[in-house]
Write a structure and sequence with these properties.
With 333 residues, this protein is of the alpha/beta class. It is built from twelve helices and nine strands. The longest helix has 19 residues, at 230-248. It is globular, with a radius of gyration of 19 Å.
């Protein structure tokens, strides 16, 4: 059976590049993904990180959707506690009006940044997430009761529904809620040390059909680096090795080159950290990557795999997606 594959993009900014150079490459990657047969192209909201240029996620979604014609474009995700629900409702009503039937709304409960930047966005409280989500839906659908303050609030543009909504998770905290609300569910195995199976089981057990989802739909995020041979893939993946070490130290910078990463002298503790993150990734030549992705899909029962490829060289990143598509035979035009 042919796997359904999608792309998660963070608009990575490598050393030697600028964000202004990187953002047009996001469109190039989306167009490539569309031509190769990838199903979706999602963008992730992160703030305060010089190595990630996708902070204004809704703007990039509109930019990418306007430059493509078939591939679904969405958020992976919008970090709802950073925003007023009305603002997100209006943004995604507008995107759905402009690109009907092609927009996805993935929603997360994490801040996607450091505490100070989170405070600059909006005071963050993950405990408020279920209430924020309920507010988002009630505003969009106009279902607040007559005695509620927001009963007369209109989400503009009217006559448009929210696009399909996925809840994002990395620990399983949102899995049951996604099922109870009849939403899609996406688990971030590309960075989470938590096994996805319990969360996926909880989601499926709790699932209630809805207007947008007649049955459960699981998207599993997977970190992949694919190259012509295993040695080259390992070399390209080394950039994220050093990035993880620096992130753990609270150092936010651009994505280092693989040359810098391989020359770095890791301490024993840092090597252990790198090994733990390497265990989450699928790195290798096309046949090996295809086998491992197929195994992940079979083991988890995921309906779709969403690939995140974080390497320094944009051309190598594009080529990785090309090799994966060819190895798994997902088609295209």
């Amino acid at each position: 059976m042919t796997l359904s594959l999608s792309i998660l993009d963070l608009a990575p900014v490598g050393v030697g590049y600028t964000a202004a150079e990187v953002l047009p490459r996001t469109v190039e990657l989306a167009r490539l993904g569309e031509s190769l047969g990838y199903r979706r192209f999602w963008l992730a909201e992160h703030h305060g990180m010089p190595g990630i240029a996708s902070a204004a996620t809704e703007l990039l979604i509109g930019y990418v959707a306007g430059a493509t014609s078939r591939i679904r474009v969405g958020s992976g995700g919008i970090m709802l506690p950073n925003h007023a629900p009305l603002r997100i409702a209006e943004s995604f009503h507008t995107l759905e009006a402009l690109h009907p039937g092609r927009i996805d709304l993935g929603i997360g409960r994490a801040p996607g940044t450091d505490p100070a930047t989170s405070q600059a966005l909006r005071p963050f409280d993950a405990e408020q997430f279920p209430q924020q989500l309920a507010e988002l839906f009630a505003l969009s659908r106009g279902t607040f009761p007559a005695d509620h303050l927001f009963h007369r609030v209109r989400v503009i543009p009217e006559g448009v529904d929210l696009p399909p909504v996925w809840l994002l998770g990395s620990s399983g905290a949102s899995a049951r809620l996604a099922g109870q609300l009849g939403l899609g569910y996406s688990f971030a195995s590309h960075f989470s040390q938590t096994s996805p199976e319990p969360a996926l089981e909880a989601y499926r057990e709790a699932f209630r059909p809805s207007a947008q989802f007649a049955r459960p739909h699981v998207i599993l995020g997977v970190a992949v680096v694919c190259a012509g041979d295993a040695g080259q893939a390992d070399f390209l993946a080394s950039s994220m090795d050093l990035s993880w070490v620096r992130l753990r130290r609270g150092e936010f910078g651009q994505l280092p080159t693989p040359e810098e990463a391989t020359a770095y002298e890791y301490s024993p503790g840092e090597r252990a950290l790198v090994a733990s993150h390497r265990a989450l990734q699928i790195i290798g030549a096309p046949d090996d990557v295809a086998r491992d992705l197929s195994d992940v899909a079979e083991r988890t029962g995921a309906d779709e795999l969403m690939i995140s490829t974080m390497v320094h060289d944009p051309a190598a990143r594009y080529h990785s997606y090309e090799l994966v598509a060819a190895a798994l035979g997902i088609g295209g035009s």
